[in-house]
Design a protein that fits this description.
By secondary structure, this protein is an alpha+beta fold. The protein has helices at 30-37, 75-88, 151-161, 198-210, and strands at 3-10, 13-19, 47-52, 59-65, 94-99, 102-109, 112-116, 123-125, 130-133, 137-142, 169-177, 180-187, 192-194, 218-223, 226-234, 239-247, 249-256. The protein has a 17-stranded mixed beta sheet that branches.
Amino acid sequence: MEFTFYKYQGTGNDFVIIDNRDLFFPKEDTALVAKICDRRFGVGADGLLLLENNPSADFTMVYYNSDGNLSTMCGNGGRCIVHFAKFLGIISKNTTFEAVDGLHEATVEDDWVSLKMNDIESINTSENYTFLNTGSPHHVQLVSNLKTFNVFAQGKEIRNNIYGKEGSNVNFVEQENPDTFSVRTFERGVEDETLSCGTGVTAVAIAMFETGKTSNNNISLITPGGNLQVSFEKTAKGYENVYLEGPATQVFKGIWK
């Protein structure tokens, strides 16, 4: 099976993106998705995205984790597919698209993409960590010496032992100043640390505000792959007008044979 694909990255979180408006891609073939995402035997990516037609929005985003399974919302993937939609000429600066968790608004200017995330009403806080869903489930935990922290071992243990088969993404956080936090994330589905996670830094920003670690509602997040911005409004219902902003870049184009 031969088709064209595009490789994208958003702060080091990398994706294979395919224009599937003609619906040629075998969407049930999880083994093919996993093979494409394999870093030794395929293209290599944290996930695969399909851009498809939508009857009312500009397009639909379908997201697979690198293990080949359909997954929940991916923030950096959402930003990358918006950039791709502009590249294809489907949109100009503004867009509304549908993802697994509903409609999202976004703007793209050059390689900078601002993505509106879903409102967040439910946040569970405990003594050592915070749990919330920002389109994907996230465990947020403050640690010391983040640079040398064993994210893989600790993330894997938390992902499996606390959250069971369904699992959760696990974010380890260190505060740099009143409105800046460093973040490293263990992602379920990838089952490893990724260089960045969009829904993860969104969860971190809101968790840090919710637990009083910051009083700012415009937060800078430093990930191993680059810097992101998260802004939001705290309301009586929870958190609204949540925006994830950062760079998205097309790396190369290829043909899968």
